[in-house]
Automatic annotation (TrEMBL):
Domain Aldehyde oxidase/xanthine dehydrogenase first molybdopterin binding: 10-72
Name of the protein in question: Xanthine dehydrogenase family protein molybdopterin-binding subunit
Domain Aldehyde oxidase/xanthine dehydrogenase second molybdopterin binding span(s) in chain numbering: 100-407
Signal peptide extent: none
SUPFAM superfamilies, sorted: Molybdenum cofactor-binding domain
Matching Pfam families: MoCoBD_1 (PF02738), MoCoBD_2 (PF20256)
The keyword Membrane belongs to this UniProt entry's keyword annotation: no
Coiled coil: none
Domain of life: Bacteria
Keywords: Molybdenum
Length: 481
C-alpha cells in the first residue's frame, strides 16, 4: 500500500488536471520480486499520464508539442496546488520543452520524417515529461494508518575545525555514487572561505559521528535539500564561532569578520587577519587567552539539523503537501523503425533538467545521463517477462540486456534554472528522471507507427513493434472531443 500514496506526490504529473479519480487493484503473484533501482520518478503513474496526453493529442489531431505547451503547469502558476493538495514549488516546463526540441532540431526532424515516408524506414519523434518529487513529508504514512507516529522530515550535519585547522564535514546522508562528498565539500568551502580540497567529508552511516536523525539517508531525491540544508546550518554555526574568536583577538566585532582565502580577517583591513589554523590553535591550546564569555561559547564544532517546513495533511480529505520540491526533466528523441525487422535506432536525443539552483553542474549532468540510459534501456532492452508456463524468459544477461555505450548514441544536454522558494539554497533534489526517456521512446514509437497500432506498454522490443505495425491494441482506447 505504500506505493499508493507515494505516487500521489505527483498526482497531476506535469499537467493542469482539475479532476482525477483512480481505482487500485492489488494482486498476489509468485513472480520474482522487482524493484526500481535507478531514476524512479514515480514512473508507473507518470508514464500513464504522459501516454494519456500523447494519445489524446494524436487522436484529436493536435501537434503533441502544442498540446503540452497548453496543458503543462505554466510558469506564472507556481507555487501550484494539485488536486490532492501537493504544492509544486517552481518550474518552467514550456521553456524546458522548447530547449529539448532545440536539441533534436525538431523542425528538421519533421522534414526528415516526410522525406523518408515509403522507404521502409519510419521516423518517429517523441517527448517525455516527468517530475521528480523530493524530500518526503513522512506524515504521508498517516494516510494509510493515522496512528503511525511519523511526520515531516529532517537531516543532520556537522562541520568542525580540527586542532590543526583541518575542516571536517559530516553528513547524515549515505551516498551511493551521487557525488554527495563533492557537493558537501563545495558548499562548506564556500561558507568557510577555504579551498575545496581543504574539506574532509565523511558520509553518514556511523552514529558515532553524531550527524544522524531518524530520517537520515539517501532517498526521495532529498540530499540537495535536507543534507545540504543541514550542512549549511552547521557551517554557519562554525562560522559564527570563528568570527567570535577572531573578533576578540583582532579587536573587532564579530560581524566585521569575513572568511576569505583561509583567513578570518577584518572587513576592509587585510593587515588584521588570522589564519584558520591559528584560530583553531587558540581555541584548542590557548583558551585561557580568550575572554571567559568567548572561551565558554566556542568549541569549533557546528552541529545542526535541517527541518523541512511541512504540516500534517488533512486525514479526512486525504489532502495536503506530501513532498517539498519538484524537479523536472523534459526529453525529446528522434528514432528510426525498420518496417521489416521492428528494430529501433535512436538518431537524436535531447535532455533538459530543472533542479532549481544547481550546486555542481558536472554532478547534475552525470545524474541526468544515468537516469536517461536506464530509461532508454527499460523502454527497448530490459524486460522481466514470463511465458505461458510461468518460466522467466530473461533469466540471464543475454536475454535481459542492460543498455551499454554500444547501444546508444551521444545524448545532448541542457538545463533550466527555477530556484525553489522552499529550500535553503533554492536547490531541488534530482536524479529520478527515468520516466522521461521511458515515455519519450514510447511516444516516438507511436509517432512512427501512426494510426497502425497503439502503444500501451512501456517496453517495446522489435517483435512488439512489428505487431503494432499490424494494428495491435488500436481499438482499446476511445478519445472523444
Amino acid at each position: 500500500m505504500g506505493e499508493l500514496h507515494i505516487w500521489t506526490q505527483v498526482t497531476n504529473a506535469c499537467y493542469q488536471l482539475k479532476h482525477l479519480k483512480v481505482r487500485y487493484r492489488s494482486f498476489y503473484t509468485n513472480k520474482g520480486p522487482v524493484h526500481p533501482n535507478r531514476g524512479y520518478s514515480r514512473l508507473q503513474h507518470m508514464w500513464v499520464v504522459e501516454r494519456m496526453m500523447d494519445i489524446a493529442a494524436h487522436k484529436l489531431g493536435f501537434d503533441p508539442v502544442e498540446f503540452r505547451l497548453k496543458n503543462y503547469v505554466q510558469p506564472d502558476q507556481y507555487p501550484y496546488t494539485t488536486v490532492n493538495g501537493c504544492v509544486y514549488d517552481s518550474g518552467d516546463l514550456p521553456l524546458s520543452l522548447r530547449k529539448a526540441l532545440g536539441l533534436i532540431d525538431y523542425e528538421d526532424a519533421r522534414r526528415l520524417q516526410e522525406q523518408t515516408r515509403g522507404t521502409g524506414k519510419r521516423i518517429g519523434i517523441g517527448i517525455g515529461s516527468t517530475l521528480e518529487s523530493g524530500t518526503n513529508n513522512f506524515a504521508q504514512a498517516r494516510l494509510v494508518n493515522e496512528h503511525i507516529p511519523f511526520a515531516g522530515n529532517t537531516e543532520g550535519g556537522l562541520v568542525r575545525l580540527g586542532a590543526d585547522g583541518s575542516v571536517y564535514a559530516i553528513t547524515g546522508g549515505v551516498a551511493f555514487r551521487q557525488g554527495h562528498e563533492t557537493t558537501v565539500a563545495q558548499v562548506v568551502a564556500d561558507l568557510l572561505g577555504v579551498g575545496y580540497d581543504d574539506v574532509i567529508v565523511h558520509r553518514g552511516g556511523d552514529t558515532a559521528l553524531s550527524a544522524q536523525t531518524g530520517f537520515s539517508g539517501s532517498y526521495a531525491s532529498q540530499f540537495a535539500v535536507t543534507g545540504i540544508g543541514a550542512i549549511v546550518n552547521a557551517a554557519k554555526q562554525l562560522v559564527g564561532e570563528i568570527q567570535l574568536v577572531a573578533a576578540s583577538v583582532l579587536g573587532a566585532t564579530p560581524d566585521e569578520i569575513v572568511l576569505e582565502g583561509g583567513l578570518a580577517k577584518v572587513r576592509g583591513d587585510d593587515e588584521r587577519a588570522l589564519p584558520l589554523d591559528a584560530v583553531a590553535g587558540i581555541v584548542h591550546f590557548a583558551p585561557g587567552t580568550l575572554p571567559p564569555e568567548v572561551a565558554e561559547e566556542v568549541g569549533m564544532v557546528g552541529r545542526a539539523v535541517y527541518r523541512a517546513p511541512f504540516e500534517l495533511p488533512d486525514l479526512q480529505r486525504k489532502y495536503g503537501n506530501l513532498t517539498l520540491t519538484y524537479a523536472s526533466q523534459i526529453h525529446a528523441c528522434v528514432l528510426q523503425i525498420d518496417e521489416e525487422t521492428g528494430e529501433v535506432r535512436i538518431l537524436r536525443y535531447g535532455m533538459v533538467d530543472d533542479c532549481g539552483t544547481p550546486i555542481n553542474l558536472m554532478v547534475i549532468e552525470g545524474q541526468v545521463h544515468g537516469v536517461t540510459v536506464h530509461g532508454i534501456s527499460g523502454a527497448l532492452f530490459e524486460h522481466f517477462g514470463y511465458d505461458e508456463a510461468g518460466q522467466l524468459t530473461a533469466a540471464n544477461f543475454y536475454d535481459y540486456h542492460a543498455a551499454t555505450a554500444y547501444d546508444l548514441r551521444s545524448l545532448s544536454y541542457d538545463s533550466v534554472v527555477s530556484p525553489s522558494p522552499f529550500t535553503p539554497v533554492g536547490a531541488k533534489g534530482m536524479g529520478e528522471g527515468g520516466g522521461a526517456p521511458l515515455h519519450a521512446i514510447c511516444a516516438a514509437v507511436q509517432d512512427a507507427v501512426g494510426d497502425s497500432g497503439l502503444v500501451l506498454d512501456s517496453f517495446n522490443p522489435p517483435e512488439r513493434i512489428l505487431s503494432l505495425l499490424r494494428g495491435r491494441d488500436n481499438d482499446k482506447v476511445k478519445v472523444e472531443r
